[in-house]
Amino acid sequence: MTATGTFTPRPGAAPLGRMIRAQAALETRMLLRNGEQLLLTVVIPTLLLVLFSSVDIIDTGDGKAVDFLTPGVLALAVMSTAFTGQAIATGFERRYGVLKRLGASPLPRWALMTAKTCSVLVTEVLQVALLTVIAFALGWSPHGNPLAVVALLLLGTAAFSGLGLLMAGTLKAEATLAAANLVFLLLLVGGGVIVPLEKFPGAVQSLLGLLPISALSGGLRDVLRDGAGMPWADLGILAAWAVLGLGAAGRFFRWE
């Protein structure tokens, strides 16, 4: 029996849902406060959309350039957050022992990965909202099924998250930084984001079409520009990358 005005300590972990929400909120604030990550996830896609929609530099085929570019830039935004940004941030957290300490906390390791995924999704919602407003201001005229767009974005996020975590959990932080930025630049050029895949030779087109960025940008373009139905082929490619990436990350990710 305790005296009036005193409290009995109740040590123990907070409910799991509360821990995940708190960690996700922390991850999101850290990402948005990071100038380099903000440049990668927000500024670069926005500049690419405005520049190539306003200046006739690249032949994007029939129709308005913004109608071709917006789906590709949305795909680029997903890749920049779920793959490049997450790989770099997680790689350095692993190097500095942050993941090791968090792994010893009451927050389970799978819950930490869930919180990181939630942070990625929150950031992507902000990116998509901003890019959509800018695209409308530039004269964008989208079509198609919104459910198909959501399915593509979610599977694209899963695919790139798996690949980003795999890279961050197996390479040194400096190697992750270099590799993630290099992959970002290569896929920007060869993933159908800015340059149509039809501009590449036939054999190269077939290989590039199997990349997750090509499936995501191509699927979004088919739906938003051409008004196509559910792009099952592109969804299948993204699902395969998601299974391979997340499975390999779960198997080979090293916390120290």
Fold topology:
Elements: H1 16-33, H2 35-54, H3 65-95, H4 98-103, H5 109-137, H6 146-170, H7 173-190, H8 202-208, H9 212-224, H10 232-252
Structure characterization notes:
It is a multi-pass membrane protein. Belongs to the ABC-2 integral membrane protein family. Residues 32-256 form the ABC transmembrane type-2 domain. Keywords: Antibiotic resistance, Cell membrane, Membrane, Transmembrane, Transmembrane helix, Transport. The structure is a single chain. The protein has 256 residues and is an all-alpha fold. Helix content is 73%, strand content 0%. It is built from 10 helices and no strands. The protein has helices spanning 16-33, 35-54, 65-95, 98-103, 109-137, 146-170, 173-190, 202-208, 212-224, 232-252. Helix 2 (35-54) packs antiparallel against helix 3 (65-95), helix 3 packs antiparallel against helix 7 and helix 9 (212-224) packs antiparallel against helix 10. The longest helix is centred in the first third of the chain and has 31 residues, at 65-95. The chain is globular and about 75 Å long. It starts with 15 loop residues before the first helix and ends with a helix. The mean pLDDT is 86.
